[in-house]
Design brief:
69% of the residues lie in helices and 0% in strands. The protein is built from 25 helices and no strands. Helix 21 runs antiparallel to helix 22.
């Protein structure tokens, strides 16, 4: 639990944020949340930012909490997931918490950080815009804007806003973590280490800071010190990644296959029910030329995880095990026939396996299940183009590019399909529209990057 949850009340003057008199249903740690301007957002001031594409709220996430979870419970679950570096799960919890507590700016900030790390621009924009409407001077609003500039790669502006927030909340763990993550992505090792070390002074059990320091040690070749930090994180939260698996991935990224394999073996011995280490170990053995050992691990995976396609399908895709990926995702479709993203994945897997007709069939189902998702139509158009059904490809690609005017691959295929149909003018028009949209997107990005799309939040 964060030591400084009350800092927004303790450190910010009433002149800057309004008096801290608002009661809260989030629990005692939120009793000091500052007053904000009332919004006209419908019943109960409900606020629901656009959810990420292909990632509707996962039913198992919020349902995992007992009964009807409060906003406080959802926030704490989301923050724990954020500390474990599981931004997808964290964002699910935090978006639901925002629905129940739409004026809580702490929730806004953590949701903004997760959306930024997941590159979910629309969700991020909605969260930040709503925070500005609530209270543009609140330190968590400043931190929301910092998360937004972090996403836009304007690291100097993000750094400035994080420091402005910390001037008002000098010991806020979550804002310090954001600053450390920013410096981590900006490759400023000295600064990110300083931020994470400060977090650990305030909260020695903060797993995100522990893991981040471990990664810094690993990048510097101090692997034993990295392992110590990973083990400390694991002791603080049993749900984080196995320390030996994490160290194995550090070795793996450096191409140190033998050292990585040793760590993955240790991870399997400690947590045999987790599939990741098996897949990485199999790949290490393949890279080392130990084919028989790799085959043994493959057989172990097939036996141990035969009935768990939710766990294995992503690894089969990641390691380009096409046949196995197809079988696993087919089983997921049998279990969840109305899940559009699973159908989309199966279409991609069939395409990789050269099963074009099956891929087209599943892509069509995906478009029916998710008629507003441009990715489904773009994939269907590409598949129809591969099959040389250019008229049908044009229909799908026109739908994709209407839904997403920045789908450059879709526009390119659309122009090519029009050419194959002998429609030279329509092809040229598609390319011209793509270039106009690209220019507009670049101008929008420049406006966002520079802050011209809105007034500076501190003024």
């Amino acid at each position: 639990m964060c030591h400084v949850v009350h800092a927004d009340c303790q450190s910010v003057s009433a002149k800057e944020t309004g008096s801290c008199t608002q009661s809260s249903e989030l629990g005692p740690e939120f009793a000091c949340e500052t007053n904000a301007k009332p919004l006209k957002l419908g019943v109960n001031n409900g606020f629901e930012p656009r959810r990420p594409y292909r990632r509707p709220q996962r039913t198992g996430t919020v349902d995992g909490l007992q009964g009807q979870p409060s906003a406080g419970q959802l926030f704490r679950a989301g923050r724990s997931a954020f500390y474990r570096e599981d931004e997808q799960e964290a964002l699910d919890y935090l978006l639901e918490a925002l629905r129940l507590a739409p004026d809580n700016l702490h929730i806004h900030y953590l949701a903004a950080m997760c959306a930024s790390l997941l590159s979910e621009e629309e969700t991020l924009d909605d969260i930040c815009r709503h925070a500005l409407e609530l209270d543009p001077r609140h330190p968590y609003t400043l931190a929301c804007e910092a998360a937004r500039y972090f996403f836009l790669s304007n690291f100097s502006r993000a750094d400035d806003l994080f420091h402005k927030a910390l001037n008002l909340l000098p010991d806020d763990i979550d804002v310090l973590l954001g600053l450390g993550i920013l410096h981590e992505y900006a490759d400023d090792e000295e600064k990110d280490t300083g931020a994470f070390e400060r977090v650990l002074e305030l909260d020695p059990k903060n797993v995100r800071a522990r893991m981040a320091l471990g990664i810094v040690y690993a990048l510097n070749g101090e692997y034993q010190n990295a392992l110590i930090e990973y083990e400390r994180a694991k002791s603080a939260d049993p749900n984080v990644e196995n320390p030996h698996q994490r160290l194995g991935r550090d070795y793996y990224l450096e191409g140190l296959w033998n050292e990585a394999a040793s760590e993955f073996c240790r991870a399997i011995a400690e947590e045999p029910e987790q599939p990741a280490a098996y897949f990485y170990l199999m790949d290490c053995y393949n890279r080392m030329g130990r084919t028989d050992d790799a085959l043994d691990i493959y057989e172990t995976i097939k036996e141990r995880f035969a009935d768990e396609p939710e766990l294995t399908s992503g690894y089969y895709e990641h390691f380009h095990m096409t046949g196995e990926a197809v079988a696993a995702i087919e089983e997921l479709v049998r279990r969840y026939p109305d899940d559009a993203y699973t159908r989309y994945r199966l279409s991609q897997a069939y395409r990789a396996a050269g099963r074009l007709d099956d891929a087209i069939r599943e892509a069509k189902v995906a478009t029916r299940l998710s008629p507003d998702d441009w990715r489904c139509f773009s994939l269907l158009g590409a598949l129809l183009f591969d099959k040389e059904e250019y008229s049908r490809a044009v229909e799908a690609l026109q739908r994709a590019t209407r839904l997403n005017p920045n789908d450059q691959t879709g526009f390119t295929l659309l122009a090519d399909a029009q050419l194959f149909l002998g429609r030279t003018q329509e092809s040229e028009e598609a390319i011209a529209e793509m270039e106009r949209n690209r220019d507009l997107a670049w101008k929008r990005y420049q406006s966002k990057f520079s802050g011209q799309d809105r007034d500076d939040v501190e003024h």
